[in-house]
């Protein structure tokens, strides 16, 4: 029983360090390990027991981002329904990633690297291809352009949320309107 408690405590401590790293790095991509340890309310020695150096911590943050992207893909049901609808659902779920989006947009972690790890990149590629094939996305656009517009619009939405000048429900509705108008197949 002691092992289970230690494992549970170890898991919680590791998660607290990762969560603090995401917050601290989103505020300052150059945040030191000491600042991250302070944010996690642990000593540097404890942080180093879990993550001996910055590279290992960043790799763990990227892995966490990959897992959260994978979870977001599942919540967005990227493999379900018309492609445009799947992309619109992905906008809503991706926006909920919070500070992890900041890390991806500021390239502290690579969207491609963490997204390909657990299938998010492939699920997004498949949704784009499906939308171009099912006629819900404008076929004059390439899949790469579709994703560029999606990520650019998402960046704008996340920037608005971070600034706190626009209510979140307005950000979401404007994001969805923008993506729909930019990517939807023209009406016949």
TrEMBL record:
Sorted alphabetically, which Pfam families does this protein's record hold? TetR_N (PF00440)
The record places the DNA-binding region at: 32-51
Keyword Repressor carried by entry: no
PROSITE patterns attached here? HTH_TETR_2 (PS50977)
Question: What range(s) does the HTH tetR-type domain occupy?
Answer: 11-69
UniProt entry keywords in alphabetical sequence: DNA-binding, Transcription, Transcription regulation
Classify the source by domain of life.
Bacteria
DNA-binding among keywords: yes
Q: Which Gene3D superfamilies match?
A: Tetracycline Repressor, domain 2
The GO terms describing molecular function are: DNA-binding transcription factor activity; transcription cis-regulatory region binding
- InterPro entries listed in its UniProt record: Homeodomain-like_sf, HTH-type_TetR-like_transc_reg, HTH_TetR
Q: What is this protein called?
A: TetR family transcriptional regulator
What are the top taxonomic ranks of the organism?
Bacteria, Bacillati, Actinomycetota, Actinomycetes, Micrococcales
């Amino acid at each position: 029983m002691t092992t289970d408690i230690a494992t549970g405590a170890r898991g919680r401590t590791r998660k607290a360090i990762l969560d603090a790293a995401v917050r601290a790095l989103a505020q300052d991509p150059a945040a030191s390990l000491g600042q991250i340890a302070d944010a996690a309310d642990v000593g540097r020695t404890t942080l180093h027991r879990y993550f001996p150096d910055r590279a290992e911590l960043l790799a763990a943050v990227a892995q966490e981002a990959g897992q959260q992207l994978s979870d977001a893909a599942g919540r967005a049901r990227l493999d379900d329904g018309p492609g445009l609808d799947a992309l619109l659902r992905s906008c809503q779920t991706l926006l909920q990633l919070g500070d992890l989006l900041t890390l991806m947009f500021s390239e502290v972690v690579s969207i491609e690297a963490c997204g390909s790890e657990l299938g998010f990149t492939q699920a997004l590629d498949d949704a784009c291809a499906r939308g171009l094939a099912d006629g819900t996305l404008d076929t004059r656009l390439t899949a790469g352009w579709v994703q560029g517009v999606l990520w650019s619009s998402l960046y704008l939405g996340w920037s608005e949320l971070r600034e706190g000048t626009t209510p979140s429900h307005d950000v979401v509705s404007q994001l969805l309107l923008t993506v729909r108008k930019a990517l939807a197949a023209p009406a016949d």
